[in-house]
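Lab notebook, design round three. We kept the backbone fixed and only want residue identities now. Task for the bench partner: fill in a sequence for the structure below.
Input structure tokens:
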């Protein structure tokens, strides 16, 4: 049961709560529509009751398994029926190339020659769903005016019927698919006469009849003998399920290709131990006829099935495509995408080299390449104007793929390539189109001449769509990553100043979750023969936290420069944070250092306590008095504590990202940090900083930013 979009009950509602339509409204409308335009398959979708989703209510002409990934799709999904609903117009896809370019998700699963039209089922005020119908690959590339008019009119009539049903409080429901079920029985019963069965039995080659689900409804004795499985075990089973050595996605793919394209297909398979059989599939709208015979000598054939010792087939299978699609979703940066294409996609399609091109400011950019012995051969294209007549720029600007079987074919269209040989003999230029616009070009190069049949071109173009989506995400990630690092570098001190009587070293590590940018900060400021040090942590690790961190660091510097005491610096910074209305809190630890007197005055606002390593190697936690986090209470006060800082003493100031780790008690982590400081505290400060960060479990996991500031009093 499928609801319509005005909120009526869905299939899960009990029968008593709704009135069912008394006749198969959707099935009749779909069958009539397909008959009018001579389509061979189709489906009706209805808008779900309570969410922006299209649900398949009935399918005709093909098993529903062909459309299984799209039985329930969001209205925002990049598929034809959803686009038809969103834009309230007929969507036409004229063949496998156009499908691969515009709707790569469909072409990945169904890389076969067929045409498709999707039409909204809508009145002037409401959309009830959509219909799609398909034709074999032999359909002309354009939809005729007659077909267009029939489809639009039929969907309009269906919308009116659905509107009346809703007015009558009748909710349309899912109906049985329109798929002719062939009865399984004896040869005589299947063929109609005993004499016809005898005639088929006398033929020297095998004959099988498959229904639309691929189940065997008839097999003659010759077929059973060639395949090596009794007829009784074949009947009612799918061929690739009943015969173990045919249990390969390659063979099932040929059945799907035949049914969807309505073109005969074939394959050769090895029946162990050494008999090669040829299978020829002849489709119709009611099923398939399969002819089975012994294959010619393998060395004399153009083989299409997997064979012992063969290299992997160049045309990737559906399962490979789905695996590659999943891998592409894991690629993060642009170079990750390039490496993944080089490692998995190029070998799968038989390519020996690749280039990924992009554009910026009207010029071509080489984003990455693999497989070229001389990198200059590729990199000379970097910066080329997009108006330059090259196959890479043409694919990028037009969004049209180009395939060149040989060098002669490429140089005939692009004569300038005579002067720039790259050592390859065939190329596929795949436009990378994401969100409806070209984002780059993927160039696959082959060391030998390489014909590109229609099905391989469709698969490669589909791969281009998948690569494009990964590349678009990767470009955005790299831009965000560069922005984050640039912003972080601008907000933190480039280097620590050299101060008399004080050695200093600092480390900062952004959290690995988020934008690689955080709100932790530190600074060291010279003040009239003294020094001021500050470390703090604004909650969050994003752009907002980083921006606020920059404001706090600037404010602390300003208040320090005008001569405020540590307590006044903290109070002023607290009031500023509240006045900014940022709704973020910050911890902070502020120190005024007097190395000549060997003293340090500290003020703390909710920050982890510093560690002090004395010259004799003993380490203690400085349990300082303090006030609340900055940004909470405008009247808060921050008392100060004075600490002895003898020459050779080391102060370790840090943020909680250095010690807080899931499952680890904070006191244990702090004690561990103290032991590390005691053991390595005599080392130069840069080595000590690296050691403390390296040995911190929290710093390795980096669920939070990490900042560390080390200060050593000198003679």
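Proposed sequence:
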């Amino acid at each position: 049961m499928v609801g319509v979009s005005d909120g009526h009950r869905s299939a899960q509602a009990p029968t008593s709560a709704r009135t069912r339509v008394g006749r198969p409204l959707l099935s009749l409308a779909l069958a009539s529509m397909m008959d009018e335009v001579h389509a061979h398959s189709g489906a009706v979708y209805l808008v779900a009751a309570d969410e922006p989703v299209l649900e398949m209510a009935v399918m005709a002409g093909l098993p529903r398994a062909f459309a299984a990934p799209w039985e329930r799709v969001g209205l925002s999904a990049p598929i034809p029926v959803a686009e038809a609903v969103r834009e309230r117009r007929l969507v036409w896809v004229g063949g496998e190339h156009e499908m691969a370019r515009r709707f790569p998700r469909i072409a990945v699963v169904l890389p076969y020659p067929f045409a498709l039209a999707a039409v909204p089922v809508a009145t002037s005020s409401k959309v009830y769903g959509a219909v799609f119908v398909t034709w074999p690959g032999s359909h002309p590339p354009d939809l005729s005016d007659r077909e267009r008019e029939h489809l639009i009119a039929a969907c309009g009539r269906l919308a009116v019927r659905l509107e009346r049903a809703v007015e009558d409080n009748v909710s349309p429901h899912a109906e049985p698919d329109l798929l002719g079920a062939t009865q399984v029985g004896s040869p005589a019963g299947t063929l109609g006469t005993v004499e016809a069965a005898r005639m088929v039995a006398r033929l020297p080659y095998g004959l099988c009849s498959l229904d639309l689900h691929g189940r065997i409804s008839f097999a003659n004795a010759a077929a059973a003998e060639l395949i090596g499985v009794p007829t009784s075990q074949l009947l009612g089973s799918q061929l690739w399920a009943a015969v173990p050595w045919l249990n390969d996605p390659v063979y099932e793919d040929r059945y799907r290709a035949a049914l969807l394209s309505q073109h005969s297909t074939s394959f050769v398979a090895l029946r162990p131990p050494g008999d090669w059989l040829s299978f020829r599939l002849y489709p119709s709208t009611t099923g398939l006829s399969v002819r089975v015979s012994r294959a010619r000598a393998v060395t004399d054939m153009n083989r299409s099935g997997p064979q012992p010792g063969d290299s992997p087939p160049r045309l990737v299978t559906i399962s490979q495509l789905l695996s590659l699609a999943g891998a592409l979703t894991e690629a993060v940066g642009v170079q990750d995408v390039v490496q993944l294409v080089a490692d998995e996609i190029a070998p799968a399609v038989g390519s020996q080299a690749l280039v990924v091109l992009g554009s910026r400011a009207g010029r071509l950019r080489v984003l990455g390449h693999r497989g070229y012995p001389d990198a200059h051969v590729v990199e000379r294209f970097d910066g080329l104007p997009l108006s330059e007549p090259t196959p890479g720029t043409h694919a990028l600007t037009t969004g049209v793929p180009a395939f060149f079987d040989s060098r002669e074919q490429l140089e005939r269209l692009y004569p300038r390539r005579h002067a720039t040989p790259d050592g390859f003999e065939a190329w596929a230029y795949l436009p990378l189109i994401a969100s409806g616009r070209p984002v780059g070009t993927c160039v696959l190069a082959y060391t030998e001449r390489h014909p590109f049949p229609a099905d391989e071109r469709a698969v490669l173009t589909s791969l281009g769509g998948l690569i494009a989506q990964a590349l678009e995400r990767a470009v955005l990630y790299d831009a965000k990553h560069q922005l984050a690092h640039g912003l972080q570098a601008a907000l933190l001190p480039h280097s620590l100043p050299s101060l008399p009587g004080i050695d200093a070293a600092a480390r900062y590590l952004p959290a690995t979750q988020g934008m690689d940018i955080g709100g932790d900060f530190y600074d060291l400021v010279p003040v009239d023969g003294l020094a001021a040090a500050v470390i703090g942590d604004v909650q969050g690790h994003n752009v907002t936290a980083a921006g606020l961190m920059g404001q706090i660091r600037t404010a602390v510097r300003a208040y320090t420069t005008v001569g405020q005491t540590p307590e006044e610096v903290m109070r002023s910074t607290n009031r500023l944070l509240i006045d900014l209305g940022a709704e973020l809190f910050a911890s902070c630890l502020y120190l005024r250092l007097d190395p000549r007197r060997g003293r340090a005055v500290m003020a703390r606002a909710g920050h982890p306590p510093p560690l002090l390593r004395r010259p004799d190697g003993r380490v203690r936690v400085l349990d300082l008095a303090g006030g609340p986090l900055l940004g909470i209470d405008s009247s808060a006060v921050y008392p100060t504590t004075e600490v002895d800082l003898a020459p050779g003493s080391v102060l370790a100031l840090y943020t909680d990202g250095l010690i807080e780790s899931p499952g680890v008690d904070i006191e244990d982590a702090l004690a561990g940090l103290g032991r590390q400081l005691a053991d390595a505290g005599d080392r130069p400060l840069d080595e000590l900083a690296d050691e403390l960060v390296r040995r911190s479990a929290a710093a390795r996991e980096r669920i939070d930013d990490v900042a560390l500031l080390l200060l050593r009093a000198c003679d």
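Keep this in mind before ordering anything: Residues 1-22, 181-191, 297-315 have pLDDT under 50 and may be disordered.
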